[in-house]
Design a protein that fits this description.
The chain is built from no helices and 11 strands. It has 123 residues and is mostly beta strands. Strands 2, 4, 5, 6, 9, 10 and 11 form a 7-stranded mixed beta sheet that branches. Strands 1-3-8-7 form a 4-stranded antiparallel beta sheet, with no helix packed on it. The protein starts with a strand and ends with a strand.
Length: 123
């Protein structure tokens, strides 16, 4: 599966933004998906994941209660709805497919990384 994230931009602190990840190729609907982010000079970090059917999710503590991950398998798309944004949320956001066990948070457990989308939150 090939992935392409989009929808990033410049947002003021406290604002909201939705980013999307569109997949091409086979078997998108059978794969759990995740969002990661990477700020300049920092390691890539887990943000959220959604099960292949969309019914189960888990989040990083830093975004829990503010971000929501969802998916539409008919559109081959995964979404990340981000509310109450903070300057610390500034990063390039990437989507990826889960390759190992449900609950994984390490980037090495995910694959098919696509090009990310930049989110900048101004204070």
């Amino acid at each position: 599966v090939q992935l392409q994230a989009s929808g990033g931009g410049l947002v003021q602190a406290g604002g909201s933004l939705n980013v999307s990840c569109t997949a091409s190729g086979r078997a998108f609907g059978g794969v759990s998906m995740g969002w990661f982010r990477q700020a300049p000079g920092k390691e890539r970090e887990f943000v959220a994941a959604v099960s292949w059917g969309g019914g189960y999710t888990y989040y990083a503590d830093s975004v829990k209660g503010r971000f929501t991950i969802s998916r539409d398998n008919d559109k081959n798309t995964v979404y990340l709805t981000m509310n109450s944004l903070k300057p610390d949320d500034t990063a390039v956001y990437y989507c990826a497919a889960l390759r190992t066990a449900w609950g994984a948070r390490n980037p090495v457990d995910f694959g098919s990384w696509g090009r990310g989308t930049q989110l900048t939150v101004s204070s």
